Amino acid sequence: MVEKFTNWVQWEDRNSLVGIKYPGIYCIAVSSKPLNTFDFIPELEYIGMTNSKSGLRSRLNQFDDTIKKKRTNHGGADRFLYAYQNYDEVKSNIYVAIRPFECNIKNPLPKDLRIMGEVAKCEYDCWAIYIEKNGKYPKFNDMSNAPKFSKSK
Predict the structure, then answer these.
(1) pTM to 2 decimal places
(2) 20 close to 102: Cβ distance less than 8 angstroms
(3) Is residue 152 part of a domain?
(4) Origin, by domain of life (predicted)?
């Protein structure tokens, strides 16, 4: 599973990731130390997925808009924003890795629909692997312990 993810890249370089136009899984980490090879490390704070026609790029842009306080249309990012309210202070410490699933999401055939189902399953598998390695959900996937910024006003 780990080998199917890209390496970690800094948040601002996310659009350079190969496969970002496809649906898939994305992992967000926060670290003051440089990250490279992907793994389910404790610094990984959020695991998300998308089957959107606009792919991972669009979902990551929604995350970005939320943590920049432009909109709060991404639940995980809203929880992230509660903890990291100053984007300029945290942005250089945010990393992302993706696991794209190549398929036709605009005019899906049965094989594409099956691949999109694999995306949803993969998110659960990623949570399970993370919990096995770290003993708990990623920080912002733990909805009972991670309040939303939009609810704190």
Answers:
(1) 0.95
(2) no
(3) no
(4) Bacteria
